[in-house]
Amino acid sequence: MSIPVKSKMATQARLSSETRQTQIIETVIALAARQSPGQITTQEIANAIGFTQGALFRHFPSKEAVWLAAIDWVEENLLSAMESAAKNTASPIDGLQAVFFSHIDFVMARPGVPRLIFNELQQPADSAIKAAVRKLLQRYRKLVTGLIEAAAVCGEVDRSIDAIAATTLFLGSIQGLVMQSMVADNVPAMHKTAEKIFPLFLRSLKESA
Amino acid sequence: MSIPVKSKMATQARLSSETRQTQIIETVIALAARQSPGQITTQEIANAIGFTQGALFRHFPSKEAVWLAAIDWVEENLLSAMESAAKNTASPIDGLQAVFFSHIDFVMARPGVPRLIFNELQQPADSAIKAAVRKLLQRYRKLVTGLIEAAAVCGEVDRSIDAIAATTLFLGSIQGLVMQSMVADNVPAMHKTAEKIFPLFLRSLKESA
DNA sequence: AAAGTAAGTAATTAATTGCTAACTAGTGTA
DNA sequence: TACACTAGTTAGCAATTAATTACTTACTTT
User: Which of A55, A173, B11, B163 registers the highest number of CB atoms within 10 A of its CB?
Assistant: First the structure.
């Protein structure tokens, strides 16, 4: 004898969990472009999608799972973009250049990404999130170190170069760029600045007089 | 006729507000070495000091004021250390080296500092905190750019060098180091790595063949 | 058409957090 | 000594937040 209650629900389009998951990840990265990733709430993500907050938990078991998926997304997309850019080049030096600029272009298109990485890097050492970032960066370093060593073998750069240290400088030069654009809130200027920075980096690899 | 309540207070030593302020700032920086600065709560700061949480607000009007003071502390201490290091050198190149390593030494002694800066950099563009960080970095860049330009005038480096871009690379090379130590949770290794990175940076300024 | 599954809503919860207020107690000075 | 001042405590408020739950409804399958 229960009286059925008229629903006032304005139910959202029903999309597959898979679709929602990618939507959630993309939303997180979009939101991270404008605010500190640590301050993004599940409510905010839901609002951006046009969801209720509870609906998010139909597609991820926890907030942490969302961040892990976002880092996976970055690894999948950024790394594969750079790796394929490196392959379509004639020499290791050209490969380095291709990696450098594909990273810059990626970040310009998705400014939230470096903020996400910076943020998760600050997590405690034993967290799952930090482990994921570590994995991503290790893959990145391997790609760059390989190219630098190959360039040394070809004689394109100083044969006695310390490829590990040079990789840190490579990553650092990009980070310097990213930091500058964050300080100045001027992402569009990144590419032009990158064109000045990369040649400087290259010179550091050259035979010293 | 109110009955006076026996107090169970185990009152902490009464220190001057000035003393407490520096104590709070140092605690924040110490805590930032081990966790994301954004997750540091007033309760945590108070616990570390041996305070109650309410007592903190006797010395700072708000949490934001604590962060602003911390950034001021960094500017005061890091910048002045680097500036004085630069002064006690024979040449601009030596000055750059002194700045580089005094920064590294500072960060090794206080690993919380770069995490603080990274974190506050992610605040919205219009926040007071971000403005403070901007000011700090501007002063930093001015110091480095000046040295590079002086080196160019002396002929110690390529006269056609872009000092602005080189400054970004200088800062980036330090950031790369810092990031590496954060990824690996291995601050002690920083100095040795720095000794490999700085010569690489220097080569990027040299006359190209 | 009936049944089952999965994605949505709405409401609520427990915990946390920044901050405040009322009160208490050392400290220095008139 | 008296008294103002300042730093401490305790308690609690208002807001926020991740997560859960009971219920509803759309789509798929048989």
Answer: A173
